[in-house]
Amino acid sequence: MPSDNSLPVNKVLFVCLGNICRSPMAEAVFAHIVEKKGLKTQFEIDSAGTASYHVGDTPDRRSAETCRKNGVPVNHRARAVKTADFTYYDYILCMDEENLRDLKDMAPKGYTATVKMFGTYDPKGDRIIKDPYYGGQSGFDRNFQQVTRCSDAFLESLGYE
């Protein structure tokens, strides 16, 4: 699909539990790839958490450092998923099955967003983007590689090269 400003905007929300590790990383990586491909005007991108533990916090230091060391800028403050998100966003992409269950429980009747796991786009078939919070740096590095693969594949599924 050409980079044409007349195309409709795709609104994408990435979701994990607390919105400090996985979903802000996915947001930053996806936004970076979209910008590199000249598609910034075709997307509105954000992230949120199913829980409100960290509302207002910046991303986990390890998540932000992993992005930065890979040349991806991060600028986000944690927020919780809102009822309005289910009709405002076209895609709500979460990181694991628990997030998916929570989102489906939170979703209002008649919601219009496509709600699914971001990992369903992983060409390696790794559907779960595991929470790295209680582990070491390798979990954050693994997440970065996975959300990069998923971002490319998600864009392809929308018809962008």
From TrEMBL:
<dbReference type="InterPro" id="IPR036196">
    <property type="entry name" value="Ptyr_pPase_sf"/>
</dbReference>
<dbReference type="InterPro" id="IPR017867">
    <property type="entry name" value="Tyr_phospatase_low_mol_wt"/>
</dbReference>
<feature type="domain" description="Phosphotyrosine protein phosphatase I">
    <location>
        <begin position="10"/>
        <end position="157"/>
    </location>
</feature>
<keyword id="KW-0963">Cytoplasm</keyword>
<keyword id="KW-0904">Protein phosphatase</keyword>
<dbReference type="GO" id="GO:0004726">
    <property type="term" value="F:non-membrane spanning protein tyrosine phosphatase activity"/>
</dbReference>
<feature type="active site" description="Proton donor">
    <location>
        <position position="131"/>
    </location>
</feature>
<dbReference type="InterPro" id="IPR002115">
    <property type="entry name" value="Tyr_Pase_low_mol_wt_mml"/>
</dbReference>
<dbReference type="InterPro" id="IPR050438">
    <property type="entry name" value="LMW_PTPase"/>
</dbReference>
<comment type="similarity">
    <text>Belongs to the low molecular weight phosphotyrosine protein phosphatase family.</text>
</comment>
<dbReference type="InterPro" id="IPR023485">
    <property type="entry name" value="Ptyr_pPase"/>
</dbReference>
<feature type="active site">
    <location>
        <position position="22"/>
    </location>
</feature>
<feature type="active site" description="Nucleophile">
    <location>
        <position position="16"/>
    </location>
</feature>
<protein>
    <recommendedName>
        <fullName>Phosphotyrosine protein phosphatase I domain-containing protein</fullName>
    </recommendedName>
</protein>
<dbReference type="GO" id="GO:0005737">
    <property type="term" value="C:cytoplasm"/>
</dbReference>
<dbReference type="GO" id="GO:0003993">
    <property type="term" value="F:acid phosphatase activity"/>
</dbReference>
<keyword id="KW-0378">Hydrolase</keyword>
<dbReference type="Pfam" id="PF01451">
    <property type="entry name" value="LMWPc"/>
</dbReference>
